[in-house]
Specification:
The chain has 404 residues and is mainly beta. It has helices spanning 29-46, 50-56, 182-185, 249-252, and strands at residues 18-21, 58-61, 76-82, 89-96, 99-106, 116-122, 125-126, 138-146, 152-159, 175-179, 193-199, 202-210, 216-226, 229-239, 256-271, 274-282, 290-298, 313-318, 324-329, 331-333, 339-343, 349-356, 363-371, 374-382, 386-390, 396-401. 8% of the residues lie in helices and 47% in strands. The strands form 4 sheets. The protein has a 9-stranded antiparallel sheet with strand order 19-18-26-25-24-23-22-21-20, with no helix packed on it. The protein has an 8-stranded antiparallel beta barrel with strand order 10-11-12-13-14-15-16-17. The chain has a 5-stranded mixed sheet with strand order 7-4-5-8-9, with no helix packed on it.
């Protein structure tokens, strides 16, 4: 049985800044973007800490084919190569829903500085009688205490609790994603968002946000999409010569660009236009401590027309047998204040959707495709370009937008 791929857990400081000379202005924008993505991958791969990150603490489900039951958690394995022979031990591990806390401790006396392999298998305790989640990834926080010192958050990880064949996965849509309202889905990254491009199983991300001084800044990165989880080391681009104000031509077109390592972005896609996100960075320039910031992102609707107008157009309905049918949904109407209906000109096929929430917090909670008033499919994962769900018999289906 294939184990879950190892993911990096510990992230350390200490990545040297690189510098690249700006290319000629005639270079195509897409070539520049491809170059940035390639540089991001190169920076992550050539970091002097890259090998330590990958090998020091790798967390995985021991047997991903075994789904967590109502009252028990599957065994977890923490393995790697420690920098000395004072190996870590697991003092405590608790699982509350999809949040996993692992507390490890090492000795500090009479330790011989030598690379030492270790492997720890343990079972998390279910906290407050909670049922372990098998549909969403577990966000694992690893706390490290050295000797009698206070523990610090030294690692973060996302792990899928079961194999891909037992989970319903979500494929993200390309486009612009904005940080969700805090009263809507939890954490918010004020004034921040990402541009996302998925090609095959590779994600390219541009993160828009602000630095510690409040200055707008961009981060770029690329990473693999594994099931519906991605780990993306980010780099920051800035004006290397430091000349010119933000509104000057010198700032807009720098002579050279400084490339610096940035935080690591973890993503778990809950649907085609919704994701949970975590930014992980060192707490300071020294020590083991990390800072983790959790927030949510959604791909917003820019169409300011009547409710449901964003879903007008030509679609292809694909059933479990891979049979495709083209549907042209154009006639827009409403059944009540909390729903809309789009149908073909002859009303043979219609898509009806329901809202949850009010005002700007309103979201599509579900859609139903009917043919001559007979239910063909119910969709519970709603995107702007892709809807997925099931037939009344339980077979998976999709509704895919056809570009005009």
């Amino acid at each position: 049985m294939t184990l879950q791929p190892r993911r990096k857990v510990a992230h350390y400081r200490g990545m040297a800044s690189l510098e690249t000379t700006k290319q000629a202005r005639s270079v195509r924008v897409r070539s520049l973007i491809a170059g940035v993505v390639a540089i991001a991958a190169s920076v992550a791969a050539t970091s002097p800490w890259a090998a330590m990150d990958a090998d020091t603490m790798a967390l995985s489900v021991t047997d991903p084919a075994t789904a967590p039951s109502r009252f028990s958690s599957p065994a977890l394995t923490l393995r790697g190569t420690w920098p000395d022979d004072c190996l870590p031990r697991v003092d405590q591990a608790t699982l509350n829903g999809d949040e996993l806390s692992i507390h490890i401790r090492t000795a500090t006396l009479h330790c011989v500085q030598q690379q030492t392999s270790y492997e720890l298998t343990f079972y998390p305790t279910l906290q407050n009688g909670s049922r372990p989640s098998s549909d969403t990834a577990w966000n694992a926080y690893i706390f490290l205490a050295r000797g009698d010192a206070a523990e610090v958050l030294a690692g973060f990880n996302l792990i899928a609790p079961t194999a891909a064949t037992t989970r319903r996965l979500s494929i993200p849509e390309n486009g612009f994603w904005w940080s969700s309202r805090p009263d809507q889905t939890g954490g918010v990254l004020a004034g921040g968002g990402i541009g996302l491009e998925l090609q095959g199983k590779r994600l390219a991300i541009s993160l828009l946000g602000f630095d510690s001084t409040g200055k707008a800044t961009w981060f770029f990165g690329s990473g693999a999409l594994d099931q519906d989880i991605s780990e993306i080391p980010l780099i920051r681009l800035s004006n290397a010569n430091g000349s010119g104000s933000e509104n000057s031509a010198a700032a807009a077109m720098p002579v050279s660009t400084s490339i610096e390592s940035g935080p690591v972005l973890y993503l778990e896609f809950l649907g085609p236009i919704e994701t949970r996100a975590w930014l992980v960075r060192p707490a300071s320039s020294s020590g083991d401590a990390l800072v983790v910031r959790a927030f949510n992102l959604r791909r917003p609707m820019f169409d300011a027309g009547a409710p449901g107008s964003a879903w007008r157009g030509r679609w292809v309905f694909v059933d479990s047998g891979k049979t495709a049918q083209t549907i042209d949904l154009q006639a827009l109407g409403t059944d009540d204040a909390d729903s809309f209906r789009i149908s073909e000109s002859d009303s043979s096929n219609a898509l009806g959707c329901r809202f949850s929430g009010n005002g700007s917090a309103a979201q599509i909670s579900g859609c139903t495709l009917t043919k001559e008033n007979e239910i063909i499919a119910n969709f519970d994962r709603i995107g702007l370009d892709r809807l997925s769900g099931f037939t009344p018999a339980g077979d998976p289906v999709q509704l895919l937008r056809v570009a005009n």
